[in-house]
Amino acid sequence: MTEQAEWLHTQIKTLASQQAQFTDRAFWVALDKLIAEQDRRHDQLQGEVDGRTWRPDRW
After folding, report:
1. What are the phi and psi torsion angles at 42 (to 5°)?
2. What residues make up the domain containing 12?
3. Is residue 35 a part of any domain in this protein?
4. 59 in any annotated domain
């Protein structure tokens, strides 16, 4: 997880814990899952770019 994603995760957890209503808390938890998924996909795509760079037969 990148430094920015970790910071964002911490901020979202703080905001979620401060919410009184379930729906508001659910929004922040869902946003946290979205950020984690985007971070995972970013890592995968970065690995794909690196892999294609080293395999000229796949250009």
Report:
1. -60, -45
2. 3-52
3. yes
4. no
Nearest Cα neighbor of 41 from 30, 49, 52, 53 is 49
- 39 close to 1: Cβ distance less than 8 angstroms: yes
Q: Whole-prediction pTM value?
A: 0.74
Q: How many residues does the chain have?
A: 59
Question: CA distances (Å), 9 to each of 26, 37, 58, in order?
Answer: 14, 12, 36
- Helices and strands, number each (H, E), in the chain: 2, 0
| Structure tokens belonging to residue 41 | 């996909």
Greater confidence (6 vs 48) lies with 6
**Domains in the chain, number:** 1
What is the CA angle 27-29-30, rounded to 5? 65
